Q: What sequence folds into this?
């Protein structure tokens, strides 16, 4: 059901192609979307094999672009939804385009790529969410049960952001796969903001890397960045150009071949990984300043390159003047030139070494703080468990002490322990209660008779009668005894009835 790595690689290539002209041609001809890849390639005057060399043309030619969101002129963003078969589609995101165009440099490299550092959300990531909302509100979304997100370079980062935020637009159940093809990681600020969403979607994400670009910034928590085998010719390809999709190597099943990580160039990438993390972990004011200076230098370098070379990469008049001036300065001031180059090299080396050391110290401090936090949490957990055990110990000993006191001082308890089976005759208890009440009644009659004698007796005899009167009359004690016997008999009868009902 899931897409192969090779299928997602060609999906990413489709996102790089600007088919806006071809879509316009087909629309003018009265055709309506979706447009197949075959139709779009023919509208451009090319065959599918020319546009996508090495692809399974029979398969890809039938794929259709169902929807897209193009904000390339404003933010550099482009994403498209590609249906590969009924009920199944890929949401592909375009990566960074060439620096030869100053708009691409500004939108892709400066605002989007460098914007990932020391920031929570870039403009292109916001556009990715707009595209997800567009898809979720569409009429066609009900036709798909399986969606995947993918992209190369910056597009890989956007693909990860799309799946992480998919639950916000009701697409989490439909998006079941995400593959970032050598895309950069994310900032620490991004991780903190989206941690609950990352935790929810991390099992869907595969993050491949095979160049310095894929090594940049932080890994998503719970998502491994997997190193891949790549092919490259020459030092230039090994340093920079191996980032291209054409350098991927696949097995017979279309899966990217994984590397054992022992390639020496991966150690070079790992150093850049540490440097990018260090810039991200620097205080915001310092990190933003470094990024700002770097972006300006890049913009200046590209602007000068465009001024120095024409479209055929030949030197312009301005370029010839710059080269001549540089050669003249080097010839006339060789020692000064060496000194300037040496100072620049030392300064750059010191700067990058400092960043690497800072990141290593940052990681060490982070680990120490984490260990301390774990130790404190463990201590409080131990205290809680110890208090609970102490509470249980006190309760058990109080129970034992109560049992001991009952055994030593409670006569009822002593009797009950000696007589494990107690028979209660409630009828007798009621008879005794009735007899006691009869005695009380007779005492009351005697009291009334004695009261009548007071009028006929002399003073001395009345004193004797008063003494006798005190000993007669209604007895509260007898009444309480009778009530106790009646209540006890009633409770035993109720208990017996409940036991009989249960048994």
A:
């Amino acid at each position: 059901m899931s897409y192969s790595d090779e299928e997602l690689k060609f999906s990413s290539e489709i996102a790089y192609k600007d088919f806006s002209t071809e879509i316009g041609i087909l629309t003018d001809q009265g055709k309506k979307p979706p447009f197949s890849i075959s139709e779009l390639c023919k509208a451009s005057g090319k065959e599918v094999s020319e546009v996508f060399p090495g692809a399974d043309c029979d398969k890809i030619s039938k794929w259709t672009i169902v929807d897209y969101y193009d904000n390339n002129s404003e933010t550099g963003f482009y994403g498209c939804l590609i249906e590969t078969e009924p009920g199944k589609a890929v949401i592909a995101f375009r990566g960074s385009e060439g620096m030869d165009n100053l708009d691409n440099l500004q939108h892709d490299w400066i605002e989007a790529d460098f914007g990932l550092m020391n920031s929570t959300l870039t403009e292109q990531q916001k556009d990715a969410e707009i595209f997800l909302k567009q898809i979720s509100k569409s009429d066609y979304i009900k036709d798909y049960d399986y969606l995947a997100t993918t992209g190369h370079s910056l597009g890989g980062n956007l693909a990860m952001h799309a799946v992480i935020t998919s639950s916000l637009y009701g697409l989490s159940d439909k998006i079941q796969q995400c593959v970032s093809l050598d895309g950069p990681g994310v900032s620490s600020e991004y991780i903190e903001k989206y941690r609950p969403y990352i935790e929810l979607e991390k099992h869907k994400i595969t993050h491949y890397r095979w160049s310095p670009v894929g090594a940049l910034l932080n890994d998503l928590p719970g998502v491994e960045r997997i190193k891949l085998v790549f092919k490259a010719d020459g030092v230039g390809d090994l340093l920079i150009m191996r980032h291209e999709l054409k350098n991927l190597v696949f097995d017979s099943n279309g899966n990217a071949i994984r590397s054992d990580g022992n390639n020496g160039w991966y150690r070079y990438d790992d150093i850049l990984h540490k440097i990018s993390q260090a810039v991200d972990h620097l205080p915001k004011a310092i990190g933003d300043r470094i990024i700002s200076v770097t972006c300006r230098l890049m913009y200046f370098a590209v602007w000068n390159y465009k001024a120095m070379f024409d479209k055929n990469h030949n030197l312009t008049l301005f370029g010839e003047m710059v080269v001549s001036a540089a050669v003249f300065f080097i010839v006339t001031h060789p020692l000064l030139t060496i000194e300037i180059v040496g100072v620049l090299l030392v300064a750059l080396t010191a700067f990058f070494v400092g960043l690497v050391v800072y990141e290593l110290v940052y990681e060490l401090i982070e680990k120490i703080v984490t260990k301390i936090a774990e130790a404190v949490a463990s201590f409080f957990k131990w205290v809680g468990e110890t208090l609970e055990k102490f509470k249980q110990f006190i309760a058990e000993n109080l129970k034992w002490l109560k049992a001991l006191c009952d055994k030593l001082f409670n006569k009822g308890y002593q009797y009950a322990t000696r007589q494990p089976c107690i028979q209660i005759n409630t009828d007798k208890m009621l008879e005794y209660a009735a007899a006691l009440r009869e005695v009380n009644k007779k005492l009351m009659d005697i009291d009334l008779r004695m009261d009548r004698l007071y009028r006929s007796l002399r003073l001395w005899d009345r004193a004797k009668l008063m003494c006798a009167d005190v000993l007669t009359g209604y007895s509260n004690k007898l009444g309480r005894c009778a009530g106790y016997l009646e209540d006890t008999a009633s409770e035993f009868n109720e208990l017996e009835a409940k036991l009989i009902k249960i048994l």
Summary: The first strand starts at residue 35 and ends at 36. Residues 42 and 48 are 8 Å apart (CA to CA).
